Each structure stands twice: as C-alpha cells, then as structure tokens.
Amino acid sequence: MRNATPLLIGVCADLIVRGPHAYHQSGDKYIRALLHGDTPVVPLVIPALFHRLSKDCQAALINKLDGILLTGSYSNLHPSYYDEAELEGDDAERDPHRDASNWALFDSVIAADLPMLGICRGFQELNVYFGGSLHHRLHEAEGLMDHREDKTQPVEQQYAPAHAVTLCHSGILSAWFTEQHRIQVNSIHMQGIKNLGQGLQVEARADDGLIEAFSRPESSFLLAVQWHPEWRPELYPQNARILAGFVEACQNWRDKRSQA
Ligand SMILES: N[C@@H](CCC(=O)NCCCC(=O)O)C(=O)O
C-alpha cells in the first residue's frame, strides 16, 4: 500500500517589486500544476531568501520536503554566474535574490538528493549550477532559431506548441513517451544552453540543435526542460505526463526514504 500522506513539494519563488514593497511570489500555474493529478500534493512556496537562512533552518526545511519544482520567470539569471558580463544594452529583468536563493537551495537539494523538476529559467539555472553556460540572446546566435513567444498574441497562443524536439534514447523522457520520438513543445525563452553542465545528459533537442531538456543520471531524479509542462495539463496530456512523472518520482523517493 502506498503512503497516502500528501507529498510536500517546494516551489521556488521570485522576488517581485510592486510599488514600494517586495513580494516573494511563484506563478499560479506552477502551483496548480502540482495539484493536477490524483496524488495529494501540498505545494510549498520557498521564499527567495533560502541563502539567508541558517544551515539548521535550511536543513529543517529540506528534511520536510519530498521534491522541488523550479519555476520559469521573465527575469534572467545574472551572467556572472557563468563568468560572463552583461551584454551591451542588456535591459533584461534581474532577480538577484532568486539567483542567490536558488544557488543555496541547489547545494542543499543536491546533497539531500531530493527529486527536482526544472522549468525554463529553472532549467537554465540548473545548467549553470553544474558549470554550464547560456546564450544571452538565442535570436542573435548563428544558426539558432528565435525561441521567443509572440507577445502580441493572446496567452493561449503564446503557450501553445511552437516547435518539435527530438527525444534522445535511454532518457527519462523517452521512457515516458515510448510511442513518440518527437514531441511538440511550447517556447517562451530568449536564452538557452550554450555549454552543457558537467554530469548532465541531453534528453531532447530542437531542430536547430539547441538542448531543450536534460537529466542528471547521478541524481535520484533530476529533469529539466526549457519548455513549460505546467501549462494547461488538462488540455495537453503530454504536459500532464511530465507532471505525473515528477510527482511519482517524489513519491518513490519518499517511500525509499521511509524504508531507510
Ligand atoms: N528569462 C529566461 C527564462 C524564460 C522563462 O522562464 N520564461 C517564463 C515566462 C513566465 C512564465 O511562464 O512563468 C529567458 O528568456 O530565456
């Protein structure tokens, strides 16, 4: 019999300034995505100040969690994290609190081997955390497609499938999508992987060669995707499959921990 206690899944937050105040926020669609399946899940927003907690407080939180979801965000990771400077005229949104908080969070999550799903900005952060680097502007890079959404379109259109990715053999995704060698994904990003981080395994590529998903075989479960599986899982079964796979990994991890 499976443990029916709800899973506790941490969701990272952005620090968003609104008027004179700052707020720790995670997008509603990420939080609701965790509630989509039949498995009871309590999503827990982790404020973007994990790095400011004492080691004891960090450990107390990590010990309670069964998994971590890294959200997308319109802000860009500061390029100093991959030893580069901002490009001339770079007016990207930044979120130094999220950058610092997630770096400390990754240290703890990797050490505890908690399951982790990274989405879009979260995917880019994980790549850099493991020593990889990013293209600052894919649309200016030789031979790469423009992976940005058309902001003049309604949001349903912006998050609709935009291009195909080819799944690599013997990965997490190819095991979930056994009937499909290629799947359609949405595309809402300006940056993307230039060099892949150490110990990461490519899971999917776009037709221009851009890495769109990776996993980390050394981890109990670490999957990161450049697209947005949190978007409308009730409409897109493929998104529901990815979310269900992540939640199942969290369940498996908890079962294993409780038997240890
Ligand atoms: N800023 C990066 C990451 C893009 C990203 O995460 N977009 C998400 C948009 C908002 C959301 O859906 O939560 C880039 O542009 O490459």
TrEMBL record:
Class of the enzyme per the UniProt entry, highest EC level: hydrolase
UniProt keyword annotations, A-Z: Hydrolase
Record EC number: 3.5.1.94
Catalytic activity: 4-(gamma-L-glutamylamino)butanoate + H2O = 4-aminobutanoate + L-glutamate
GO molecular function, one term: gamma-glutamyl-gamma-aminobutyrate hydrolase activity
CDD domains reported for this sequence: GATase1_2 (cd01745)
InterPro entries hit by this protein: Class_I_gatase-like, Peptidase_C26, PuuD-like
A GO CC term assigned to this protein in UniProt: cytosol
Family to which this protein belongs: Belongs to the peptidase C26 family.
UniProt protein name: gamma-glutamyl-gamma-aminobutyrate hydrolase
Source organism of the structure: Bowmanella pacifica
High-level lineage: Bacteria, Pseudomonadati, Pseudomonadota, Gammaproteobacteria, Alteromonadales
UniProt gene name: guaA
